[in-house]
């Protein structure tokens, strides 16, 4: 399975502040570079990410192609949390969010492992570049929102 890992230093923020920001559900659509719409009775204003919770949302790929995702929060720890796709447009998708103290701020890391429906050729042609673009944009958004 391909893996993508991106780490960004978020200046003047503690690991607790950055993780707390990520665990607050209202920030999910702010971080994501493309449109996402919660499905079901999710109220993002009152959503806290917790282990075992499942969420459904529509992700508008390239802001025009609707895809439906069902994800579960597998684990929440003092310095990380992990979400995993249960149902959606990929054969597999696991996303680790990690924070650690860095010089002058917090190192925030996204590590994503995934498998495309259609296998390695589809990953190479379409998915690998798309994932890199999305996660680089997420990191730019995190920096902008947390400064």
Order of helices and strands: EHHEEEEEEH
* Number of helices, where a helix is a run of at least 4 consecutive DSSP H or I residues: 3
The largest β sheet comes out as: 7 strands, antiparallel
Number of domains: 1
Structural class by secondary-structure content = alpha+beta
Which percent band covers the strand fraction?
A: 35-45%
Q: How are strands sequenced across the largest beta sheet?
A: 1-7-6-5-4-3-2
Distance between the termini: 34 Å
How are the SSEs placed, and which strands pair?
Blueprint: E1 3-11, H1 15-23, H2 28-31, E2 36-39, E3 54-61, E4 65-76, E5 80-87, E6 90-102, E7 105-116, H3 120-146
Antiparallel strand pairs: 1-7, 2-3, 3-4, 4-5, 5-6, 6-7
Description:
The protein is α+β, with helices and mostly antiparallel strands. The protein has one domain: Alpha-D-Glucose-1,6-Bisphosphate, Chain A, domain 4, CATH 3.30.530.20. Helices cover 27% and strands 45% of the residues. It contains 3 helices and 7 strands. The chain has a 7-stranded antiparallel sheet with strand order 1-7-6-5-4-3-2, covered by helices on one side. Strand 5 and strand 6 form a beta hairpin. The longest helix has 27 residues. The radius of gyration is 15 Å and the shape is globular. The mean pLDDT is 94. It comes from Pseudomonas fungipugnans. This is Polyketide cyclase.
């Amino acid at each position: 399975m391909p893996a993508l890992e991106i780490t960004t230093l978020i200046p003047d923020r503690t690991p607790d502040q950055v993780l707390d920001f990520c665990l607050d559900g209202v920030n999910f659509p702010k971080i994501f570079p493309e449109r996402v719409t919660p499905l079901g009775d999710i109220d993002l204003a009152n959503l806290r990410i917790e282990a075992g919770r499942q969420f459904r949302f529509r992700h508008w790929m390239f802001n025009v192609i609707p895809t439906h995702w069902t994800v579960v929060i597998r684990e929440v720890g003092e310095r990380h949390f992990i979400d995993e796709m249960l149902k959606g447009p990929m054969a597999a998708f696991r996303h680790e969010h990690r924070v650690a103290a860095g010089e002058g701020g917090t190192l925030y890391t996204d590590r994503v492992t995934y498998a495309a429906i259609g296998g390695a050729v589809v990953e190479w042609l379409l998915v690998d570049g798309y994932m890199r673009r999305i996660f680089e944009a997420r990191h730019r958004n995190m920096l902008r929102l947390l400064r």
